[in-house]
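Internal ticket #5521
Category: modeling
Description: The requester needs a full-assembly model to guide mutagenesis choices. All entity lines are attached below as received. Residue total reported by intake: 822.
Assigned to: D.W.
Attached entities:
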Amino acid sequence: MAHPVSPLAPKSYPELAAIAGVSFATAEAGIKYKNRTDVLLVSFEPGTTVAGVLTRSKCSSAAVDWCRKNLSAGTARALVVNSGNANAFTGVKGRESVRLTADIAAKAVGCAPSEIFLASTGVIGEPLDAGKFAGVLDQMATRLADAPWMEPARAIMTTDTFPKLAGATAEIDGVTVSISGIAKGSGMIAPDMATMLSFVFTDAPLAAPVLQALLARHVKTSFNAITVDSDTSTSDTLLAFATGKADGIEPITDIADPRAEIVGAALADVLFDLAIQVVRDGEGATKQVTVTVEGAVSDESAFRIAKSIADSPLVKTAIAGEDANWGRVVMAVGKAGEPADRDKLSIRFGDILVARDGERAGSYDEAATSAYMRGEELELTVGLGLGEGRATVYTCDLTHGYITINGDYRS
Amino acid sequence: MAHPVSPLAPKSYPELAAIAGVSFATAEAGIKYKNRTDVLLVSFEPGTTVAGVLTRSKCSSAAVDWCRKNLSAGTARALVVNSGNANAFTGVKGRESVRLTADIAAKAVGCAPSEIFLASTGVIGEPLDAGKFAGVLDQMATRLADAPWMEPARAIMTTDTFPKLAGATAEIDGVTVSISGIAKGSGMIAPDMATMLSFVFTDAPLAAPVLQALLARHVKTSFNAITVDSDTSTSDTLLAFATGKADGIEPITDIADPRAEIVGAALADVLFDLAIQVVRDGEGATKQVTVTVEGAVSDESAFRIAKSIADSPLVKTAIAGEDANWGRVVMAVGKAGEPADRDKLSIRFGDILVARDGERAGSYDEAATSAYMRGEELELTVGLGLGEGRATVYTCDLTHGYITINGDYRS
């Protein structure tokens, strides 16, 4: 937390809409940090549906396992998040800690433990003392409010240098529904989500299967299309909650309902906005990089090549050095193992064509390219010339800041 | 080349044996570097066999394509290596440059161009002017010698901070045969070899298919078991040459010949020694790390998990910070996508058990572990408890030095 704020931090933060049926409180439980909030309790009115996308790590945390088990029922009454300790790889103690926390929260808000959703982020491998939540959650339940969203956004931060908030609205049946979302994440970020927590709340009346389908669809081009360091966390959690408290809207129970698409578009906006904020707060980041691969044999192939480029330490250090080192981009294309023909490759930085047909473009202008590379938001486009496959991955550069932050984190 | 010498550099260099039938010269062709040799010509007597393992990059360099085409014939009369320019991603010009260089070399040593083997290393994407070799190779051919091996080892360096040499001998039919090898490589190093060049020479009489079989077998546990930064180069080349000039040995024409195994063991020693030197010269490296995974469902699965750990930026920065952050090791196991059971995992740093059965070991001693982490050579062992699969991958830590070297290389 003592690290300098990312130069890519937003200049201002949005005032997110209150969501009918959602109220929250934060507190200082002293789990790891001093003098800052580290616990979030969000309470939902009865009838709230829930959907989630969780880490694919084979060593997922106890809280992730808990959420996975309870998602199938599709209903939620509260969310408890703590920062500072991920309660991951804590064995039997970790499972007990989760159960105990859910029990404490269920008593505090008055529901079944299975309606409590949990997320923990921070150090892996240290036992989390659930006893710390005992008095705290009870007390939090007495002062729930529906604003300001900045508070929950701050309480879930770890190495983040700025809070992440995004909101959107959509109109269905002549009624405006709102989506308010928060996220945290800065390192250990890679597709399939990494140490990334995000919670999205809406008053739209979405049945759980519809909410799940929308979330699964739009996570692909948002949280699963970002990478900071190729490392995937044990604790990734994206949860969406729909209270259905927007007045005068019939429940949306079928994904084919045209209203689902309308809410879905707003949800996609919120997820994408939050995902980009995570990249812009990538540990040590000084530049945001959008890597697009087109002309691949399939979208999947394009995605794997884009990820190979976005994950490459040599590409990322070159970008940090403001060097349009397209040779390293070629290297990263080649190592992806996907179909590629060296002699058909083209590479652009922004609108500048630097290579085509497998060699440096005749029109290449070093000075113009160097000027472009000094920018804060860079676009790198690779054309493979093989087919119609296309994908975009978002990342940041790799700098001394990353080493400084991660070379001395636990101790 | 201005970077400080790796703290892991050897304290002294071996005096490699001259190999009957092999002679060489180096020169300053001024391809990129000033005041240092950057071209190597190695000449072989007629009858020399050759075998090779080349990059799997889909964007391999023109020189790699050339070698691949000519390896099938199995005979070699000369090897030309240049440093400073990889002649990769240089399109038609690159192919012409390779053809021209082979022509020049073939005239200089008196053989067919198809018997010339080529390797280039350095910047990708810059055209290589073969004209620079014209007078140089002719002149080099007039002053070939069989010692000292330090000269070719130095001529092929790029960001390497020390030359890499290794030798071994074996006795077959009562005769001592020698193997002398050199390598270069420092960054863009990952299994499947990366910007890694290595050339190994022996006077043993090995038929080309036998040499190829031995090379393929022993590259798995040497050059293909190392990683510096997970990046794989377009130019990886490992070539082995056997002159057969050791007196009084019948040719070894069958891999089942017991003498093949004897020479193979010596070859394995040389390859392993060179591969470890590459890791120890990893860009910015301050520690050598041996990652062993055991108890996996198969050797292949163990290898993929070991590589996931060895490639993880978070594991590597933790090691740089002398932090036994086994939580990050768990993360890297989990992200590998291979079968793993969190609650059966055990992790050791050296002989110190830090985690077992999915949680911190009861015996864990922070002070002892910290003391161990201050060492220069670290061993990290993960037990999965699932089967008999086992693999080891060798890597180094990730430090500010890596960022400094790669953030400003091309320009």
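Resolution: model delivered.
Comment from assignee: The first strand of chain A starts at residue 22 and ends at 27.
Ticket closed.
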